[in-house]
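Q: Got a minute? One more chain.
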Amino acid sequence: MRKHENYRELVWVLAKTDFKLRYHGSVLGYVWALLKPLLMFAILNFVFSSIFNPRGSGGNEYYTLQLLTAIIMFNFFSEGTMASMSSLLNKSQLVTKIYIPRWTIIVASTLNSALVYAMNLVVIIAFFAWYQFLPSFAAVVMFILFSLSIYAIVLAFGLLMAPLYVRLRDLILVWEVVLTILFYATPIIYPLQMLPLYIQQVLLANPMAFIIHFTKESLTTGHFAESWQYSAFFAVLVAGFGLSVLAYRKFSVNVAEEI
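A: Always. Here it is, folded:
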């Protein structure tokens, strides 16, 4: 029991250190954690609100809330996967000089991204309050479950990719391109309903598309997925996480020597 407590303390210390160092020396400090998604939201909202939310012509009344929520959730996924992939290499001195479980470094990097996401949730709450819109209790519960699901995806990705990135340094460049593709393949700036049904079904096979689409829908329109869709999603999530743990155990054996 004491050993596990030490690991939890180590993970938390590493996560807090990364979080503080991330904004150390900047003039605005932690405010950047809020400004980055807000600036991206402001630009996209200005450009696309007239396309997907034409005022006065029956457009989506809550497009702004949907867009902001989607951007913050996708940023969590994007920054979390990038940070977790490079975590072992970025902490190479810890990996090679002293022995600590490698997984603690990966988990700490994902917690750092989760802390930034938690700060951004304040922005979402503020915008919903500004619009005087209160989502249903069920929608809020699903939002929390989907947020935890994104964290699980980020952690699973890190466990799989961090050891591989030590060997294959091109992976992070490839992943940057994939993230750009995923951004546009996920219904963030557009409603999924505007696409043909068969394309909707293809896109919903992407976990982030499923999460963001039904988060937007449940929070603002009260529309939820079917129970079998939730069951299939969480079953795939659990299976994928289990496979990532097995992959980590296989690929992390000689990480210190390969760095």
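A: DSSP finds twelve helices and no strands in the chain.
Q: Perfect, thanks.
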